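Data card: per-record layout.
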Amino acid sequence: MILRQTAFSKTFLMLFLAVLLSILSGCTTFNRPARFEPMIRLSPSSFGEPASLYQQIHAELNGKKQDMNVVLEVTPEKLTMVGIAMERRMMTITYDGKELETWKDGKLPEQVQPEIVLSNIQLALWPIEAVRKGLPEGWTVVEENHLKRKICFNNATIIRIEYSQKERWLGTIKMTDTRYHYGLTIQSVPLS
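The structure for this 192-residue chain is written out next.
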């Protein structure tokens, strides 16, 4: 299955990347209070198996929509993510479980923090037990039939995640933030 790459408008590109890469971070660009979402950093080996994915990510915030392409590779030794827009690399994240190495295009806003991007990837894709162990105090994760996940703070649902398949990293993932009212749809296919 080949996913269609969409052309970006230059004006909207920086806003979209800020939304896509830091929307879960409580970024002050969107008039949010100090970061509220949980910050986790799980070892690549806790993912459970190697995965190489091509992802098309669709973001929606305040009625504005945009798409971005990502290549994600997870091995027991490290995670590597490359975000691409307008046929240009915008961000690279590499994490081996100890050292986090990042690069981001200078045109990305300062508020786009790779640490938060890594945390968000892991909240959605890592096994529930690994996420549960990595959550800070007050935060919980609940999963229903391997197809729905809720990230809660003091029993209030903050993030809802729905999966089209039991293999979290394949198919379609829909993330909804109930506090900041945004949505992400991530379509993933394996790289051969």
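Known properties of this structure: Residues 1-19, 21-34 have pLDDT under 50 and may be disordered. The CA atoms of residues 158 and 178 lie 5 Å apart.

See the next section for split statistics.
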